[in-house]
Design goal:
With about 120 residues, this protein is of the alpha+beta class. It has a single domain, classed as Nucleotidyltransferase, domain 5, CATH 3.30.420. It has 4 helices and 4 strands; from the N terminus they run αβββααβα. α3 runs parallel beside α4. The radius of gyration is 14 Å and the shape is globular. The termini are far apart.
Length: about 120
């Protein structure tokens, strides 16, 4: 049976391989966006643990945001993840955009995290 080497899987692996060589022990800020929501988490690959997470599905965000599929929602989620990371003692991360291009919601999340105090 053939392997499931889709374009997105190969692109994601290529981005992660590049990040691993430049990470120098920093945690990774990963992004997942669906058609209606956006999620992000800070992962320590050495320990295999999630250190902080934020998404547009949290109760507080559902009350404020109409949908998680907007640039404004992504910026708010980026600021929240930065606030939670700084609270957990994390100041520097490596941004893992996954298979997504750095544009639109992914870019807004990154800019929101930078405004919140994260460095990458």
């Amino acid at each position: 049976m053939a392997r499931n080497n889709t374009t997105t899987t190969r692109r994601q692996a290529r981005v992660r391989r590049s990040l691993r060589s430049h990470a120098y022990g920093k945690p990774r800020l990963t992004v997942f966006r669906s058609s209606k929501q956006i999620y992000c988490q800070i992962v320590d690959d050495d320990l295999g643990r999630t250190l902080a997470a934020a998404s547009s599905l949290e109760k507080a965000n559902r009350d404020v945001l109409k949908t998680g599929a907007t640039v404004e929602a992504a910026k708010i989620i980026g600021q929240q993840i930065a606030e939670r990371a700084v609270h957990a003692g994390i100041n520097e991360v490596v941004f893992d955009r996954g298979a997504y291009i750095y544009h639109g919601r992914v870019k807004a999340l990154a800019e929101g995290a930078r405004e919140g105090g994260l460095k990458f």
